[in-house]
DNA sequence: TATGAATGAGTTTTCATTCAT
DNA sequence: AATGAATGAAAACTCATTCAT
């Protein structure tokens, strides 16, 4: 019997352990974003046994959905923070700059997100799914409301802008991100049109979208 | 040794057989878009033996990438056809209408596309990948050129518009499409903000994007 | 989920379970020595699930190499025991008698050995291979040293004699062993020259070899 | 329809085509002696279609057994030639030298032979097997007779010497031959005892054997 | 005779999850 | 709570062989 990790009795301990698992999963996923790490790997990296992981998450997918939720929350917080600061609120450029910075510092967000639709959501319990979607929706609405205030938009419009902004983000990412093994291949000149760097392309596309969206119809 | 299907000797016969396999794969995928059907299923549905499928496609993934390519080609052809008709060329609404119609009639395109990034491309031979991407790029550029002509845009701008249009399409789809089992769940009023139907939402979003994009910067 | 076999928690239990698997594999192989049994068969015969077998052996080949190692070790122990007994040490006939007895009671040794070169070693991890070869070499050298003492031979000569003895053994086996289905066929008189029974032929051949080897060059 | 190779109508043509197939198989096997080439490879290398190969050989194994038979015949011819030359007949060293030279120039003989027991003979039709064994036996007896004359041995003794000689050869080969990937591994000093080069080791072992065998019992 | 399209058997291994300890 | 041993489903792909043309 190997050293059993100290039991987490209090709810704080338990939250900490849960956070350990998430952190381990995140680190592992960052190393190789093209496949979800196995539960065994996550357990080892957390210094826990496989079974213990299942005391904190009902399924493997739940772990990664939690990660995704963290990142979404972070992104929406960023947006909220931006538009709550009166000075910067009105400037789209400043917003895009903040937005891009967040994405750049959370490289796994968009990869995980791409897996969410086709991998994560498949193996997710309906109740887990509901909880995830509900949290997301609520924050989306809240952040949307702040945008509405900043741009004097009708109710619901802010949420809609947010969703479309994120849709463009995720869509462009999936178009422009390639696994390392493709890099050299796509360096050939005939691929130039599908090669603009995501970090340059996205702000331009978003700027265009917002310009159109903020005009009177 | 069951009844052997008539041999495809000529190159036309072979093309037909290849098409049969693709059709079977498409039908199967349409039935359950949340997982790629197995090769055994595809073979059975085509009335062929498993091994025969591998005479026409080197890997299972190649089948689905071929399907995706078909649909992309169809979509771009649609766009091309639209903008090549002088009468309708200038109308964005008419374009969006055609575009949406195509998507509506090819429900598996966007699902497959969502799997492409996270599933298909992982298991795809680099050479198969290259062929797929190259074909796509070329058609993208060609169709882009037609858009450039229709709107009197500078070179490269048409391709860029197309890519961004498709990015928004794919991104919104992934945001708004739910598996059937989620439907009742999301019927609850608290989910209203993330529930607008894709077919309504997308044209609005695209109209906004194009309005912004076609303005002088 | 069928009845789960009692868990092997202690290291003794685990060793016992490992031994169970080996025993099952050996029994199965004895039944049909012309093909390695499948892991599924081994698992069933051990009363375990397939996955459990892989907790004890990393690959199927590792199982059979372990079997081979057991038998080699047994054979070399036999030799060692023989030559460590002062009374019998000098008698070649007595040695051959012991040696033959061991082979007779381990009928799968030479069959497995014949597969080792062409089947097992191909699919074996290089590290597993190294471990196997190293153990073998060490025992070979140790046993060789005992032979050197018994016959007053220079260093290294004992190991060499052993290897050549075994080479002749394996070579003759492969020449003289036939699958049962060949028996009647080879009963025809024209096959008499290649039909001497292995158990008669080998001691004669070994006696000749050792006679020549133990003479001054 | 690609250029169909000229039909082989006469029996000479057919023999030539058969020889082509064998040559192709041999060349392919020499390239990678650790696995039998596929029939498709052999067909391509012979400039024939897969089906055509089956007009000349009933099974894939038959091809390689034919190759083995060729090499055995060659080896026995070599022995025969040696002992039929009065001048060199009595010298064991000269014989060993010729014998080793043949092996050195037919590197696939011993590899194929090692596969014969565990791979080839399994999938061989009993009749094919009989033919192979019969031819071998007859030549073995014939060559044995020549040895008997050269050394004034009783009938049957020559064949026995030959079989034992070959047994030692094959056994040592399997002990001392390693796939290239093992080379560096076995370069470590602890493996020295199992590393003597086959071409040095075999003549010594054979010399010892023959010395013992030719003495009065 | 020659072709090559069609067949289909056959098996290892991974890994999420459970549950006895 | 923690552990880690046990479970078993799931599926792609190869390739020897056949036989219609």
In terms of topology, how is this protein built?
Four copies of one chain form a homotetramer.
Chain A: H1 11-31, H2 39-46, H3 50-56, H4 60-84, H5 86-89, H6 92-105, H7 107-118, H8 126-151, H9 157-176, H10 180-186, H11 198-214
Helix pairs in contact in A: 1-2, 1-4, 2-3, 4-6, 4-7, 4-8, 6-11, 8-9, 9-11
Chain B binds a DNA duplex (21 and 21 nucleotides) through residues 1-2, 4-9, 14, 17, 38-40, 43, 48-52, 54-55, 59-60.
List keywords for this structure.
homotetramer; DNA-binding; Tetracycline Repressor, domain 2; 217 residues; 2 domains; Arc Repressor Mutant, subunit A; 0% strand; 11 helices; mainly alpha
CATH class of the largest domain in chain A: Mainly Alpha
Low-confidence stretches of chain A: none
**CATH architecture call of the largest domain in chain A:** Orthogonal Bundle
**How much is the radius of gyration of chain A in Å?**
20 Å
Q: How widely separated are the two ends of chain A?
A: 69 Å
Number of structurally distinct domains of chain A: 2
CATH topology of the largest domain in chain A: Tetracycline Repressor, domain 2
User: Roughly how much helix do the residues of chain A carry, as a percent range?
Assistant: over 70%
Instruction: Give the overall pLDDT of chain A as a whole number.
Output: 91
Shape of chain A: globular
Overall SS class of chain A: mainly alpha
Chain pair forming the biggest interface: A-B, 55 and 54 residues
- Topology pattern of chain A, helix = H, strand = E: HHHHHHHHHHH
Count of separate DSSP helical elements of chain A: 11
Superfamily (CATH H level) name of the largest domain in chain A: Tetracycline Repressor, domain 2
Name the beta content range of chain A: under 5%
Number of strand elements of chain A? 0
């Amino acid at each position: 019997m190997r050293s059993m990790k100290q039991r987490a009795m209090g709810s704080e301990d338990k939250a900490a352990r849960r956070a350990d698992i998430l952190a381990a999963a995140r680190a592992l996923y960052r190393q190789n974003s093209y496949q979800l790490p196995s539960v065994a790997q996550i357990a080892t990296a957390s210094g826990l046994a496989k079974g213990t992981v299942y005391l904190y998450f009902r399924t493997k997918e739940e772990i990664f959905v939690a990660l995704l939720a963290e990142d979404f929350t972070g992104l929406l917080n960023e947006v909220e923070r931006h538009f709550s600061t009166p000075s910067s609120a009105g400037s789209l450029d400043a917003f895009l700059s903040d937005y891009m910075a967040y994405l750049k510092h959370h490289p796994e967000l968009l990869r995980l997100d791409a897996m969410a639709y086709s991998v994560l959501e498949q193996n997710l319990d309906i109740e887990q799914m509901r909880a995830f979607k509900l949290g997301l929706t609520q924050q989306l609405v809240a952040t949307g409301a702040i945008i509405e205030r900043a741009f004097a938009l009708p109710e619901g419009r802010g949420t809609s802008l947010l969703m479309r902004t994120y849709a463009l983000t995720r869509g462009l990412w999936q178009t422009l991100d390639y696994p390392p093994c493709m890099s050299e291949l796509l360096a050939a000149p005939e691929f130039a049109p599908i090669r603009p760097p995501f970090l340059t392309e996205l702000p331009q596309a978003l700027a265009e979208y917002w310009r159109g969206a903020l005009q009177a119809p």
